Here is the input.
Amino acid sequence: MDFLSPRARAMAISAGATAGPEPERLRFDRGLVTEMVAKAPARFVLRAGDPLKNLPIGEGFTHWGCVSSAPQVNDLSGGRRPGSQEDFRRFVKLGHGLNVIGFFGGYPVEPQDLPPATRHLDCISDFLTLTDKVFHPYCLGATRIRDALDLIRLARGLTEDELREGPQCYTVVNSSSPLRYDAPMLDGLIEMALANQCVCFTPFTLAGAMAPITLAGALAQQNAETLAGIAFAQMVRPGAPVIYGAYTSNVDMRTGAPAMGTPEYFKAAVISGQLARFYGVPYRSSGGNAANAPDAQAVYETTFALWGAKLGQADIVMHSAGWLEGGLSASPEKLVIDAEILQGIDAAFAPVAVDDESLGLDAIREVGPGGHFFGAAHTMARYTSEFYSPLLSDWSNFGAWTAAGSRETLARAHDLMKALLDAYEPPALEPARAEAMAAHVARRKAEGGALDA
Here is the structure.
């Protein structure tokens, strides 16, 4: 692996990696990788602002994340356009209000109206003010990570030692496939590991582009890149929480564009989960699609990707809802539509109760041969909102649908999105903590923000 950070190379060499002869290249032998990866915890808790929204990692739960890192927003009212801070805040409010969304995997949409050097200060402040769910600061240099951890500490009233007791956030380190980690990512991950915060290592191994065109070859390269990152995190701080991340898929060989929600993506997601369990570390996968609009293609590709992640037993699934265009745009309407898909997947994996009550033998006796169960006492006692889908509620039959205005899915999702925003209430934040955050942001902006990456 090429490590482009001199600080990271020196730390890795002192821990047993072999240098050169190429100046930036390191070699990790099998025994060193095995020894280091064994130090990584199999389970931990990602702590949220509200302890009730903590995410247990490695305990068999799948947590769904909001779309992240899209440069564009695409919605029914404004069309496709560069993301702004207003758009960013709107997505955070929507993700906060949707109970199936457990965390934010980076900025839902990039607020391009904010200066790059200080953008992280505004975005982390917005996360800490507008939601109390787990979120993800970008690993773009040591300075941005230090700022994020300082703001988390101030918002949650933590000392430095309390911050280090367990991960208060996580970040993603992407290898520059093939076989390279860049300097900003490495320098940021060092700060995260030293602070005992969670790092998810995710190669972007697209078969035929940044990895061999065969699925086995792409996964072999993914595995090498991920394990090198996990091993290095343990060199920085033994026991640092890490996640085995995977994003292996194929590309359109005519254009080079990433393809998502394909059979290859599905198989890679399942196999990656098997690899993570083999090494005894938690697993991250992703949703995604390559559609340009929240249409049928977007839904079936997203659903296929999500099922691959779920069957791979992913602990966290980034980009689960709201993603379009292979990550180039975020759609609030798609976020609402995908939330229903996620609820359906969760319901499909919920245990089926089998007892005297659920068997319904009394109801069968009550109705008898040739009857129906609509009005049976057993039915009426269980006729609750869990069988009601807001998005599909006016699909009862064609006549009722046309009488309701013949609205398509996108229009109904848009109305639900507006209703969620109207109902939004920010989480409680002590005034003194908010003032401390604001003072930190003002001081860091005056100093110029992040100038190291």
